[in-house]
Specification:
The protein has 2 domains: about 475 residues, no CATH class; about 50 residues. About 25% of the residues lie in helices and about 10% in strands. It contains 17 helices and 19 strands. It has a 3-stranded antiparallel sheet, with no helix packed on it. Strands 1-14 form a two-stranded parallel sheet. A two-stranded antiparallel ribbon has the order 2-4. Helix 3 packs across helix 12 and helix 9 packs antiparallel against helix 11.
Length: about 600
Amino acid sequence: MKKLRYIALLSSALLMAACNPTSDEPKPEKNEPDTKYVGQAVGNFSADEWFPGGQLGTTTNVTDGCYEDETPAVEIQGLTYEFNLGEKFFERNYTENTKPFNGLGPASVRKSCLDCHPGYGHGQWKDRYIANGSAAYGNGYLLVVYHPTYAGSNDGPYIAEVTGMPQTMAQSPFLPPIDESQINITWTEIGSMESGLPMQFADGEKYSLQYPTMTIPESAFNTDPKPENIDFRLETTIGVIGTGLIDAIPTDSIVAQYEKEAAYFRSAGLDVSEYLNPNYWDEASQKMAAGAYYTNFYTDGILADGTKTSKAAKDYQTLKRYTYALTRGSLQDGAGANAIWNITNVSRPDRPYLYTTNAWASAMSKNKDVIAEIKASGTNSPYYVDVNGDGKVTDEEISEAVYELLRPGTNQFDNKYHNFEPEMTADQNYAFMVWHRGLAIPRARNLNKESVQRGKKVFMEIGCASCHRPSWTTKDDNYWAPAMYEGKPLPRYADQKIYPYSDFVQHKLYMKNDIHGSWCRTTPLWGRGLSAQETGRGDRLHDARARNTVEAIMWHGYSKKSHSYSSAEKFYKLSKEDRDAVVEFINSI
């Protein structure tokens, strides 16, 4: 991949439209490039706002490929080699048996991390679910298959028959847990807003909103048993840039944000449990709930200062801050560290087992075609096992071996039928996490423009910053890492003022065919204005339903119950000049 790293002065601010006709991303001014102002206070922007990731976390490159850049901290701390090696594990396609890029199996979600994160960014809008073949690139859709709490509900537990990240790929001779050819996605344009806001602004400019529905028939599930009483939602991948900086935000700072928001809702006479997820904020005690904390549950660990932590004692916790559902805390034990295992199904020393389900293992162990193919392969197949040791391998023995080898939670090192070696070594996994924690945020653009300065002012005035909190300070960044990284440092971001534009708290938008569970983490806005340039599209929101920034904002006002309805209504009432200014600001930070 092309790299242009840490160019102090660029000759122009090249922000390309990148083949997205619906993109509203800002174009550079021809006569006055912003590079002459970088690092200076301009208008209502401070000098440090040019560097959203701070001095240690920002790349000054804003041209094609900037999402791939490492942070200055990587170079300063002597980790460039590890960063470049780790990058290969993100970009390369995985195969069943080609070292060091082996994995995938026996079932997987994707063959490559890059497929879901095109150009390292947000998944693209698609009209069908595709994990296999060349068309998979950019299709970051992940399936949410759950048992609805009531008919039509968008809430309920994930089903047990397929993995939480449902798999639609499998290695021969197996069938995928879900046959993706039977997945149907339908996109529908809404005719009117539930809130009553018209579908055009007062000046006559129109906007449109779309949402997806998905169906998967029972016949698509290659499981035993097949799931019943199920419903579906789509989610697409988020960008991976700046994730190490988010990991560096102190837990107590995010706790203080919860306390601040709870106090506001309480003083306004509102039901705090409606505005802060009770799974994370306990209003009765006015403290964080136990579920808000992420405990390292895969391995013992070590902190950046050398302190050792015990998995058994659960003596390391951080506040959850990753994923739409806020399911992950430390980047080194969740988010990308989890994805490299459960998306491509790559085993490693701290996770020496497969990401599968009992229901799929059972179905494959009973499938006559699977057993026949294994029998035909003979000793070339690891599933051809003489269980009884009598020199004869029967269908029943193959069936037993298949189930034992495919079921989840088995330690493959000690499996009685086969000795699986980890497909990714500890050193390779370490390099992958140096890369993941070392991804930079591109510098801000066009802050010298009066329209962008106006956009910031209006953004603040209409209340967007209530959720899209502009800045945080990282303090000492005493990060957690798996014990197998001992003596191997990760990029560190101490004492940086960063501008992610998120409160890292969940809120509800009450959109049509809403996200599973309704609650959704406030998406960081930093660097998103370069999405069309880097990925080919500028889609936004959890399922890429918003094709541009205006659509994303107006979805915030679809229902009067939306936690951000007031801000969306105020945006709706702005003049076109001010609306355009807000959009230009969002796409410049």
